[in-house]
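Case study.
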Amino acid sequence: MNAPALSLTGITCTFVSRDVRSQRYTAVRDVTLDVAPGEFVSVVGPTGCGKSTLLNVAAGLLEPSAGTIHVFGEPLAGINGRAGYMFQSEALMPWRTALGNVMAGLEFHGVDPQEAGARADEWLKRVGLGGFGDRYPHQLSGGMRKRTSLAQTLVLDPDIILMDEPFSALDIQTRQLMENEVLELWAAKRKAVLFITHDLDEAIAMSDRVVVLSAGPASHPIGEFVIDLPRPRDVAEVRITPRFIELHRAIWNVMREEVLKGYAQQKLAA
Amino acid sequence: MWKFIRPRAGTLRFWQVLVLVVIFVFWWAMTTPGVIPPLMFENDRQASFFFGEPIKIVVRIWDWFVTDRDIYGHLWVTLLETVLAFLLGTAAGLVIGMWLALSPIAAAILDPYIKAMNSMPRVILAPIFAVWFGLGIASKVALGFTLVFFIVFFNVYQGVKEVSPTVLANARMLGAGRNQLLRHVYLPSAMSWVFSSLHTSVGLAFVGAVVGEYLGSSRGVGYLILQAEGTFDINTVMAGILVLTAFALVLDWVVGRAESHLMRWQPRAGETEKL
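After joint prediction, the assembly is written out as follows.
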């Protein structure tokens, strides 16, 4: 009955250079990770440790070299239709207005345009962009584009939400606002969330569980922490509670070495 | 006085017209017999034989448009050829560009042939087209088509290749199937490249039409010029060139309007409003 919303088992991803077949790079090795329905799981790790690779695998955009993915107990083939994906970089269609972008998913699913428009409009209002439906992405600020992306993903009411450092490009104030908004929306719907970030503060403040990945190549989970901070949380306030600091210290102890390792590798490569 | 007409944004039109007037006065002075003593030619009629006389040219244009009203048919034919070549070339370039961009194997097979056909000086095909399609509209449209097709083709090919992988992945995650991706992602992205080459491709369609007419036809502005050249009527030739130029400017303006309407979503530099 209670199959995990998302279950990754023994995932390994090895990329082969297109020009030189012998050049390979193993981004993640033997990763096993479950996300229960309604659970908010964050994956943190040093830069370049294959966090996004993992998310692409969960989305069905990337086929792993080895390992299996189960979505609510069913093996995943092709695109993960029950998941919504919020990308790190700009993913809005620049030739569609904000409303058109939010409507896109409904349109692709064959929803009647009039109803799709109404639902998209409602979601735009919910993310605070009520009057901006007719703007094109280039006419919106970075934060507004992220809100549009959020509405675009959530309007389809996915059972699993995948987020790839969605707020990394935002300034700290906008970021905290967005984090609180996401938490609020999540609390209302209780979807399974797999949240990728390099920011430990963000991970602890938002999640039920934090998974730490080792430095790449061949990164794998090296620690898992249950975040028992009470909800509802305010991401700015929760940061100064003693329990938060305690958790932060515990996770950082595990992460520090990996961060330094990752940094050293990048320096070596440069 | 100078303060009012000093070159600045507000007096731009005045200065633009002034340049035109100066050119025409210079032209008139150099070619009209008796205005200045002949500089290069022995006879003061020779300059007008080679370069035409502005006043006679203007009269010629006036006759065409107002007195005799006999140019409209020719203009219409040239316009029709231009538009047909443009539309057919764009449609074919769009379809084949999308097809090759989305099937790498077909692109790899056809690659040398496309490069070869593009490098070929295609104007040389005009006589062949005249043999194949006759001296009517079809042979001019065919020539314009070959010119427009490659411009659009390469732009569409590039446009599809450069679709942002994130936008593509996002559309797939939102549930877009293959046809929906084609319609909602590849096509708009390719169209933006097509529009950016719109000025070039309309211009080339026009070149195709006029060159085709010039090489053999019974109607069109190119035909008028060809006829006048046959009788060394340099004034009519010049008048034809001026009409073609004005016509090309009008086409370019229409294209500019269409472009700014269709490309609203593209960011432009400095889009702020002064309050």
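Observations recorded in class. The domain at 6-82+191-269 of chain A is CATH 3.40.50.300 (Rossmann fold). The interface with chain B takes residues 56, 59, 61, 79-81, 83-85, 87, 89-97, 104-105, 107-109, 136-139, 152, 156 of chain A (CB under 8 Å). We will return to this complex in the next lecture.
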